[in-house]
Amino acid sequence: GTAQIGVTGLAVMGRNLARNFARNGYTVAIHNRSYAKTESLVADHGDEGTFVASESVEDFVASLARPRKIVVMVKAGGPTDAVIDELVPFLEEGDIVVDAGNAHFPDTIRREGALREKGLHFVGSGVSGGEEGALLGPSIMPGGTKESYESLGPILEKISAKVDGVPCCTYVGPDGAGHFVKMVHNGIEYADMQLIAEAYDLLRQGLGASAAEIGQIFAEWNTGDLESFLIEITADVLQHVDAETGSAFVDIVLDQAEQKGTGRWTVQNGLDLGVPITGIAEATFARALSGSVPQRSAAVGVLQAHTSEWDVTDRDAFIEDVRLALYASKVVAYSQGFDQIAAASAEFGWDIDRGAMARIWRGGCIIRARFLNRITEAYERDANLPLLLADEYFTGAVGNGVAAWRRIVAGAALHGVPTPAFASSLSYYDGVRAERLPAALIQAQRDFFGAHTYRRTDRDGTFHTEWSGDRTEQTA
Ligand code: NDP
């Protein structure tokens, strides 16, 4: 075979990835379970480059130059296993299978192990940027062996997004590392979206501003530190008018947020690793609350509020407070997400370079943002930074906004505006910087009812107090 790269699974994502490879000059072998999608790709876009279409898996594999590089872009879960099982009998030692779908990282660890035993490379790769990213340049997060990256990496880097000429693709780490980082990316995306939604709600309720006016505020914010894809599209969405009713589009959309599950995976993993990713968790639960229809129906007009009108006197100062609170909360969410990556990296032996992850998220993906440069710089200053928030740049940038952040969270509480992500991020900030936490009391309680023991501040050792007896302390 002569094709340099193959793509199987030609729905929206696979089709656009295949076109992206072809547009970049690669000869692309294409295949799909049902041949119609393969034919339509050739018919609609065959002139964009060189495609080699195959109807059978056997012909598809045979059309590729060795070592073969095959990108699988099918529905995550069972379908991915089914496609791998069909491919494997035709593959030879050294061939590379790339799963570019949204796999859950434990599945990727399992698949990598199984293919490694057969002498094959399995690359679990996160791909972010949706349909448009796949076509014009996504952010790509490939895991697997370093050896596989030597031949595959340059091709993926070529089709990835570029920022300042630097590709938004780099080797992430062994087996499940790529899909893990993509999962955390999606979790951070949840947090970012929730924080933006809270900022919108605060501006709406605090200022009584219209959606379009708030859209203009977001457009203004997009020229500063908050510049990002999500802020940009928020400005656009808020200024969009529903053609049918003439109302602001956001006002005719049902307020029940859905999810495909990557946020849930991120939160579940945060619990497994014991990493407080409160921003991502609150964002995921806020979606769940919005969809809790019976509970919301039972509560509306029934639960007492005891709030007063939010009488904002200085409009510009209020807008600036919300902006600063949004920025600070956003830094917390990222700081927590990067802690989660560090914890998983240690747990699974992945050796992930966090600064490099921030770098490949600068373009192509949904959370692309100017401020990611600052994160890369922070990890360049100290690759083992224990807390992103405590980096010298972020202590200053967040410190500038702390007073505003407190005003906003306190005001939201007084006036009954739900701000789970803003408020929990501020609590995290105060918790992590506290010299002493009431966790001491929790340890005492645990020792009281369960003899779970405690350590002391003044000397080493593990102790237990005889709570139900004479209350003497024993060395445990
Ligand atoms: P879908 O997730 O809708 O999957 C459809 C594709 O899977 C079709 O090619 C279909 O083949 C194939 N397929 C389904 N079941 C099987 C099976 N048992 N055997 C063989 N092929 C099967 O496609 P998308 O393009 O939306 O997404 C592809 C992957 O990319 C998913 O894992 C998704 O999570 C991920 N992703 C999607 C993004 C997006 O914005 N959509 C963004 C980032 C990642 P057929 O045509 O024959 O039915």
TrEMBL record:
In Swiss-Prot or TrEMBL terms, this protein is called: 6-phosphogluconate dehydrogenase, decarboxylating
- What EC number(s) is this enzyme filed under? 1.1.1.44
Alphabetized NCBIfam families for the sequence = gnd (TIGR00873), PRK09287.1 (NF006765)
The record places the active site at K182 (proton donor), E189 (proton donor)
**Native species of this protein?**
Cellulomonas humilata
- Any Gene Ontology biological process: D-gluconate metabolic process
Work out whether the entry's keyword set contains NADP. Answer: yes
Which family does this protein fall into? Belongs to the 6-phosphogluconate dehydrogenase family.
